[in-house]
Amino acid sequence: MVTASRPLRADAARNRSKLLAAAAALFAERGVDVPMEHIARRAEVSIGTLYKHFPTRENLMAAIFPERLAALDVIGEKALADPDPWHAFTVYLDDLYALQAEDLGLNDILARDLPDAPEVVSACHRGVGHAEILITRAIDAGVLRGDYSITDMATLTRAMAQVIRDSPAEWRRFLAIYVEGLRAP
Amino acid sequence: MVTASRPLRADAARNRSKLLAAAAALFAERGVDVPMEHIARRAEVSIGTLYKHFPTRENLMAAIFPERLAALDVIGEKALADPDPWHAFTVYLDDLYALQAEDLGLNDILARDLPDAPEVVSACHRGVGHAEILITRAIDAGVLRGDYSITDMATLTRAMAQVIRDSPAEWRRFLAIYVEGLRAP
DNA sequence: CAGAATTCGAGGGCACCCTCGACTTAACCG
DNA sequence: CGGTTAAGTCGAGGGTGCCCTCGAATTCTG
C-alpha cells in the first residue's frame, strides 16, 4: 500500500529525522500545540523545510504518535493477563495516566478530539478496546459498579489530563479517590 | 476609600453598563478569554471606549465577578446550616459545580490561577473558607476520608471545570462517582 | 457656546500560520 | 571527474486574529 516513491535524498532524510526528533521532544514537553517555528528551530532546519516534509501538524502527529500509542497495547495486554479483574482494571488506569503524565502530547491526544490522522485514531481505538474488556470483566466479577461505561472513562481521561497538566504531582491521589468511588457497592 | 470623582457623564454611564452587560454575558457563554473586540461589538461600542472604561481584562473581571462569587457565600451558608455533615458537604459540591456549569467564566475563574484583582481573590477566599469548614466537620463526624484536604478539592475543581467545559451533561455523574470515593472507609 | 469628557476606529505591535520563488546541493551520467 | 538537473532548503513576507494606543471628531454639561 506504500507508494514506494524513490528514496529520500540523504540531506532530506537527515532533516526528516531531525524534525521527527524535535517534534517528538517538544510535543512531549509542551503538548501538541507547540508553534511549528519552535519545532523547526529545535531541529535546526528552516520553517519551509518543516512544511516540505510535513505539510500539516496532523502529518507530523501521524508520524509520531502511533509509536507512542503502541504503549497502550502493552499496558492493555499486561492488564488482560492479570487474573484479578479489579487489580487489572486499576493497574491499567494507573499505567495509562502514568504514560500521559510523561508525555504531554499523548495527554493532549487522548483528552481532545482526535486529529484527522487515521493512524492515530486507530491506535486509540485499539487502546479503548482493551479498556472495554477490562471494564466488562470487572463488572461481571461484581467488583466494579455495574453502570460504569467506557464513556465514563473518557470523561475521566479528560479530567485526568487537566489534573496532569496543572498539578502533575497530584494525579495519583486524585485517581485513587476516583477509583475508590468505582467499587461495586 | 472610593475616590469619589465626579459622576460619569450620561453617555459614559450608559456605555459602561452596556459594556458590563455584554462582558457578563460573553464571559458566561464563552469563558473569560473572549476577545475584547467581541465584548465591544456586543455592547455596540467601539474598542477604544471599552479600553477607556476598563483598561485591562482584569478590571473588567473585577467589575463582574465579585457579584457572581457572592453566590458562593449563599451556597456556603446554606450548607453550613445543614445539620448532616455529609449531606452538607455533598450538596455544597453539587451547588458549586452547578454554578460553574451555568457560567463558563466562573468556571474559568475557579479553575485557573486567579486574576490580579483583589476583589475577585477575596471573594474566592471566602468561598474556600466555607468549604474548609464543611470538610473539617465531615471529617470530624467520621463520614469523610480523614486525609481529604482543601487542596484535593482545588484539584477536583480544576478537573470538574474541564468536564463541565467539554461534556456539560456528564458532570453530575462524574461527581457522584468521585464523591462516592470520598466516604470514610 | 466653550471646554471638558467621551467616543471612535485606524493602525502599530505581536505571535502564529503557511507559501513561494530564488538559491543550494546531492545524485546520477557521460 | 565535472556537468546537469531534479530534489531539497531557505527565509522573507503575506494573511489572520488578537492586543492595545492615540489623535481627531463628537457630544454632553454648565
Summarize the structure.
2 copies of one chain form a homodimer. Chain A is mostly helical and 185 residues long. Chain A contains 9 helices and no strands.
Description:
Two copies of one chain form a homodimer. The first copy, chain A, is mainly alpha-helical. The first copy, chain A, folds into two domains: 10-55, Arc Repressor Mutant, subunit A; 68-180, Tetracycline Repressor, domain 2 (Orthogonal Bundle). The first copy, chain A, contains nine helices and no strands. Chain A has helices spanning 10-30, 36-42, 47-53, 57-81, 85-102, 104-111, 118-140, 150-166, 171-180. In chain A, helix 5 (85-102) runs antiparallel to helix 9 (171-180). The mean pLDDT of chain A is 95. At the A-B interface, helix 8 and helix 9 of A face helix 8 and helix 9 of B. Chain A binds a DNA duplex (30 and 30 nucleotides) through residues 8-12, 15, 35-37, 45-49, 51-52, 55.
Write the topology of this structure:
The structure is a homodimer of 185-residue chains.
Chain A: H1 10-30, H2 36-42, H3 47-53, H4 57-81, H5 85-102, H6 104-111, H7 118-140, H8 150-166, H9 171-180
Helix pairs in contact in A: 1-2, 4-5, 4-7, 5-6, 5-7, 5-9, 6-8
Chain A binds a DNA duplex (30 and 30 nucleotides) through residues 8-12, 15, 35-37, 45-49, 51-52, 55.
Which residues of chain A sit in consecutive blocks of at least 5 with pLDDT less than 50? none
Which bin fits the share of residues in helices of chain A?
Answer: over 70%
Largest sheet of chain A: none
Estimated radius of gyration of chain A? 19 Å
- Total domain count of chain A: 2
CATH architecture of the largest domain in chain A: Orthogonal Bundle
Please report the first level of CATH classification, the CATH class of the largest domain in chain A.
Mainly Alpha
